[in-house]
Structure formats: structure tokens, C-alpha cells
Amino acid sequence: MDENTRTVIQACFEASRRGSIHFGQVIAQLMAVGVESYHVDYRSGRTTCHLPGDDTLDISFERPAQAIAEAFDGDALRAAIQGAQQGHVLYPAFMRLSQQAGCTGYSVWIAGRHVSYLGRRGETHVERFPG
Predict the structure, then answer these.
(1) Which of 33, 55, 92, 102 is the right S-S partner for 69, CB 3.0 to 4.6 Å?
(2) pLDDT in tens, 32-61
(3) Do 72 and 123 contact (CB within 8 A), yes or no?
(4) Per residue in 104-130, is it b (16+ CB within 10 Å) or e — as a string?
(5) Closest C-alpha to 72, from 117, 129, 114, 128
């Protein structure tokens, strides 16, 4: 992976964590540098980006201060997702809301145009990219 790709990915995730860009902008920036997918694990505080040729980049972030809910609440998670899709909920709030809904992490499949959200007991919610 070249240094420009690494820099773009790191800057993109930092901007997202600050709440200064929305999900659509994250996807556009990552697509531009060839990211195929990424996985966010709230419990380990790690995001792993996957690029062609099986290159990966791990980015650490601060783990949640609050405990992730034990029960997976699909309705609450869908409400957080909908808010993010409409631009009302930026990433800092999305992290909090999705963790309160029992989401332990998620995988964004850029090429497949969907996100798989995960709960503690293997629960899964799949959300297709809008439009």
C-alpha cells in the first residue's frame, strides 16, 4: 500500500470520528483509493481496511466508555442507521446509538454495497446502501 492511500484512509476515519463528514463521504473517499471493505470492532477498538491484493490497514480508536448493551435491538439500530443515512446522525452519535442497540461492530462491503451489523450472540442486521 502506498503512503498516499494510507494517508487518505487515516484522514477519512479521523474526520468521521470527529463527526465532520458523513457516511456517504467516507465511502466515496475510500472507494477513490481502492478500499474494498472494512470492519469496525467496537470491543477491540480497531478498524481493519481491506484493499485489493489482500493489503490491510489497521486503525485503532478509543473503545467505548459505556458498556455495549447485552441485548441486540434491531429497531433501535435501524433508527440509528436511518438517522445516519438522512444526515441527522454523524458518526460519534451513531457509535453511541448503535452500541446502545447492542451492536458490537460491523463490516462495510463497499463493492457489495451493504453493511452487516453484528450483535453479541451472532445476531446480524444487513443494510443495503441507499439508492
Answers:
(1) 102
(2) 999 999 999 999 999 999 999 999 999 999
(3) yes
(4) bbbbbbbeeeebbbbbeeebebebeee
(5) 117
Q: What is the pTM of this model?
A: 0.93
CA 31 to chain centre: 14
What are the two backbone dihedrals, phi and then psi, of residue 123, each rounded to the nearest 5 degrees?
Answer: -60, 145
3-124 folds as YdfO-like fold (3.30.1810)
Find the mean pLDDT for residues 103-131: 95
Output the pLDDT for position 93: 94
